[in-house]
Design brief:
GO cellular component, one term: cytoplasm
Keywords: Cytoplasm, Metal-binding, Methyltransferase, S-adenosyl-L-methionine, Transferase, Zinc, Zinc-finger
Radius of gyration: 22 Å
Number of strands: 12
GO molecular function: histone H3K36 trimethyltransferase activity; histone H4K20 trimethyltransferase activity; zinc ion binding
Structural class: mainly alpha
Pfam families: SET
Order of helices and strands: EEEEHHEEHHHHHHHHEHHEEEEEHHHHH
Protein name: Protein-lysine N-trimethyltransferase SMYD5
Helix content: 40-55%
Length: 394
């Protein structure tokens, strides 16, 4: 659903049709397809195979992440996870948060991707594809070959195949040279020769004559680039949802201090045991969200407050009628870096240079990074130079 927003006819931007207040939900959108990251799955981050809802209770989640199996959370009634509703696929035992998600997955794509009793067979073509991807794409993960697999499976299962292919065609198409650059960036310089291996395994696992253009090398690379530039990260966490519910409680001062202290200590314990990887993580393809252009001073941001794949786009400030709605393709830390560093990230990952008001106002800055940024980038500098040289040659 969307309120007060419209796309341009060429799909290159999203604009406000009416006044939108700061904090207002601009639209809510479900993805065409979504997939949990493969390393995230392997590391026992349990999520619904369809909607990515976290399946662990907040307490189970906190125990695993903190390494404390005897931990008890106060206010357990604030956890919204309902294990009694969880259902497994009868054939392959993949888990869903409810019967509705299991049925939706089966109707949409899972009949093609279900491995049945061969779920743990390393020689199954789909498992070979997953293993190859994991050996190339290490955490922190930004994409998944299974997003591409679900695209193929959705078309294969669809009665109206042309309709689904048209839906996927909404996402940006690029020149062959641009797609090659994106594919190589997504794989990493040391693995760019593995694109042919992934293509071969992908074809063995999923080939369909209706989609033959996606299985020729150029088409596969195009699919790869589509997922690389349009995949929106999704994060879900039953613990995070429980913490937000705790924050909203009205408590006497002493109880509030005790609860806040407990939560602060819990996060310290988790940081020591697990580090930064707290969420079930994946990515999805969202038609409306993908029409939002980038700005280094965005007026909207995406979030997943329902603990599933439903994307909420909210206004970060008041937005006037006719004003473009922009999100940031950079995270908060990246947005605080110099114009030169921001452009380097955007150019390498999305193949464009930003001309937002912030970048225009900083045009007179020297094209050098700060000392802190140089230290952070020093490790990858040589590799980055080699990549830029190859981009120029292309």
């Amino acid at each position: 659903s969307r309120r007060g927003a419209q796309t341009t006819s060429d799909g290159k931007g999203l604009f406000a049709k009416k006044s939108i207040k700061k904090g207002e939900n601009i639209f809510t959108e479900r993805p065409l397809v979504s997939a949990q990251f493969l390393w995230n799955t392997l590391y026992k981050y349990k999520a619904c195979e369809y909607c990515l809802r976290a399946l662990e209770t907040a307490e189970q989640n906190a125990r695993r992440l903190s390494g404390n199996p005897g931990l008890s959370l106060p206010h357990p009634e604030l956890c919204k996870v309902r294990p009694e509703l969880h259902q497994a696929c009868p054939q392959c035992q993949v888990m869903y948060c409810c019967s509705e998600c299991r049925q939706a997955a089966a109707e949409k794509y899972h009949r093609v991707l279900c491995l049945g009793p061969t779920e743990d067979n390393p020689d199954h073509p789909i498992n070979k594809l997953k293993d190859a991807w994991r050996s190339i794409h290490y955490p922190p993960e930004t994409s998944s070959i299974m997003l591409m697999a679900k695209m193929v499976a959705a078309v294969k299962q669809a009665k109206d195949k042309a309709h689904w292919q048209k839906l996927f065609s909404h996402f940006c198409s690029r020149t062959a040279n641009e797609e090659e650059e994106i594919a190589h960036k997504l794989l990493g310089e040391q693995f760019k020769g593995q694109l042919a291996l992934l293509h071969s395994l992908f074809t063995s696992a999923l080939f369909d004559e209706h989609l033959s253009r996606w299985f020729v090398p150029e088409g596969f690379r195009s699919l790869f680039a589509l997922v690389g530039t349009n995949g929106q990260g999704i994060g879900t966490s039953s613990l995070s949802q429980w913490v937000h519910a705790c924050d909203a409680l009205e408590l006497p001062v002493q109880q509030r201090e005790q609860l806040d202290s407990f939560i602060d200590q819990l996060y310290k314990d988790i940081d020591k045991e697990t580090g930064d990887f707290l969420n079930c993580e994946g990515s999805g393809l969202f038609i409306l969200q993908s029409t939002c252009n980038h700005s280094c001073i965005p007026n909207a941001e995406a979030s997943f407050p329902d603990n599933n794949f439903l994307l909420h786009l909210s206004a970060l400030c008041d937005i006037s009628p006719g004003e473009e709605i922009c999100i940031s393709y950079l995270d908060c830390c990246q947005r605080d870096r110099s114009r030169h560093s921001r452009h380097k990230i955007l150019r390498e990952n999305y193949l464009f240079s930003c001309s937002c008001p912030k970048c225009v106002s900083q045009m007179e800055e020297q094209d050098v990074t700060s000392e802190e940024e140089e230290e952070a980038e020093a490790e990858g500098e040589t590799e980055g130079d080699e990549m830029e040289d190859e981009m120029t040659d292309v």
